[in-house]
Specification:
By secondary structure, the chain is an alpha/beta fold. The chain contains 18 helices and eight strands. It has two domains: 155 residues, EAL domain (TIM Barrel), CATH 3.20.20; 203 residues, no CATH class. Strand 7, helix 5 and strand 8 form a beta-alpha-beta unit. The longest helix is centred in the last third of the chain and has 18 residues. The chain is elongated and about 70 Å long. The protein starts with a strand and ends in a 7-residue tail after the last helix.
Length: 381
């Protein structure tokens, strides 16, 4: 199976240190082409994992324990940092540890602590340690206490609320975003009875939304020569299908300003990835489910309460329980993006999705990058 992922790597302060492209199953020519294509979608370049390619713009390369020794020597001569990856407590691990600048240790590996102990003995004192498969806040906290430098996993998509914590009411800005999404969530692609005047009224209550829809409607993407200056005309030009995606993306980015922007990014990435894999008829519901998968974190509410706030359709609620065709896509998208190959293969069983995954993912990464760039604040002249 061909795999392409772009993985955020977090520092101890939970800020993103770098985005690491990971590729497997490709030829060297394909790797170079893909890394060139995704380069613009990687705001912080540092390390790369590819089986053949090592572009100049990346300072380090992830190297497998069973990798080609000549390649390792060539990377050293080229001045690249060596990051040990997918290591196991077996023959050859000590030799690789001694030449590593950093080591990525998989928390799910059965001999995780034994490998970590070897790392401390056979590596340079200043080696950096990367914890992989960190999938909860408790795991992050424990590994942080053990002194790991970097963390990779989906722990940042999880939220833990104290039992005694009171729910915070949505502030007016969030309320407008929720009202906007709740309105479009009931639309279908063939619905001709949408209340665009009601939508315009919701948008006009929020200066940021008003500026954003005007900017979008006057952008080159919609090819209008006449300058649009009111919200109703703007949403007519943009069209209902695009308006749905605009509403979702704006909610996602706006309500996570006080949290890590990675929440917004992974929500949009799951949404577009699932839409790309879905049949034409249900694309909108697949997109919605991908976004809704982290709605609780976005709104700071328990997941069920957040879904109620957004008036989420029942098909979306079922999908987040891995039920039905969209539920299968959710399981595939979640496992693929998290790098969980065992769960990925489980959800892929009985489907024909395997050959579509990396292309659907690449398209989603580029789409998210372009979309978030469009959502930058519009200056008021």
């Amino acid at each position: 199976m061909k795999i392409l992922r772009i993985v955020p790597m977090f520092r101890r302060d939970r800020e993103v240190e770098a985005y690491i492209p990971q590729l497997s199953g490709f030829t060297e020519e394909e790797e170079l082409e893909l890394l060139n294509r995704v380069g613009g979608a990687i705001p912080k370049k540092m390390w790369v994992f590819a089986e053949h390619a090592a572009p100049d713009e990346y300072t380090g390369v992830l190297v497998r324990q069973d990798g080609d020794k000549e390649r390792l020597r060539a990377l050293r001569e080229a001045g690249k940092e060596i990051i040990g990856y997918n290591l196991k407590v077996e023959l050859g691990v000590k030799e690789l540890l001694e030449c590593c600048d950093a080591v990525a240790v998989d928390r799910l590996y059965g001999h995780f602590h034994q490998l970590d102990a070897l790392l401390r003995v056979y590596s340079a004192k200043n080696i950096r340690r990367i914890a992989l498969s960190v999938n909860s806040l408790d795991e992050f906290t424990a590994l942080w206490a053990e002194g790991f430098d970097y963390f990779i996993g989906d722990f940042y998509t999880k939220t833990v609320l104290a039992e005694s914590a009171q729910k915070e009411k949505l502030n007016p800005v969030k309320a407008n975003q929720v009202a906007l999404l709740a309105e479009v969530s009931t639309w279908t692609d063939d619905d001709t009875d949408q209340d665009l005047h009601k939508m315009a009224h919701i948008i006009e209550r929020d200066v940021a939304l008003t500026l954003s829809i005007l900017k979008l409607s006057n952008s080159a993407a919609f090819g209008g020569h006449k300058q649009i200056r009111n919200v109703y005309d703007a949403i007519v030009r943009v069209g209902t299908a695009n308006l749905k995606r605009w509403a979702i993306s704006h909610l996602t980015s706006a309500v996570t300003d006080e949290k890590t922007p990675e929440i917004a990014r992974v929500a949009l990435l799951r949404a577009k990835f699932m839409e790309n894999l879905m049949t034409v008829r249900e694309k909108w519901l697949a997109f919605y489910a991908g976004l809704a998968s982290v709605t609780g974190v976005m709104l700071g509410l328990p997941q069920e309460d957040a879904l109620n706030e957004l008036n989420a359709p029942q098909q979306v609620r079922d999908a987040l329980q891995y039920k039905g065709e969209i539920g299968t896509l959710y399981g595939v998208a979640e496992a693929y993006i998290n790098g969980d190959t065992d769960r990925l293969n489980l959800h892929l069983a009985g489907t024909n999705l395997a050959d579509k995954l990396y292309k659907a993912y690449l398209d989603a990464e580029l789409w998210v990058n372009d979309l978030l760039a469009q959502l930058e604040p519009v200056p008021i002249s």
